[in-house]
Amino acid sequence: MANQDWIEIGTLDDIPQMGARVIETKNGDIAVFRTADDQVFALRDECPHKQGPLSQGIVYGNKVTCPLHDWKINLDTGLAVAPDEGCAASYPVKNDNGKIMLLLTANS
Fold first, then answer.
1. Rounded mean pLDDT of 41-58?
2. 68 to 31, 38, 49, 57, 96: CA distances (angstroms)
3. How confident is the model over 35-40, as a mean pLDDT?
4. Which residues, by range, are in coiled-coil regions (predicted)?
5. DSSP for 23-79?
6. What is the DSSP letter of 106?
7. pLDDT value for 27
8. What is the DSSP letter of 107?
9. What CATH code is assigned to 15-91?
10. How is the chain split into domains, by residue range?
């Protein structure tokens, strides 16, 4: 991935710990999450179950709970936690010395 593929979306401080910030793109909203230990993840802001806004869910560990029906989504992969099944698209994101960089190509 070339450097020009990554876009700067803000700083780590722009994302609340154990919370999310929404980035609007031409392909839909992306939720960028920050965990209690400052890891950063990016998922399409849509639960695979009923399309609830994951950005409004509760972040704990490396998971987020959908605010509509309590589905738990793994922030690393976008996969629903068993027994639920489904996947929210995940996006590469990195912390570059406090600057948060996002790649708008979803992971497979």
1. 96
2. 16, 25, 9, 8, 33
3. 97
4. none
5. EEETTEEEEEEE-TT--EEEEESS-TTT---GGGSEEETTEEE-TTT--EEETTT-B
6. P
7. 81
8. P
9. 2.102.10.10
10. 15-91
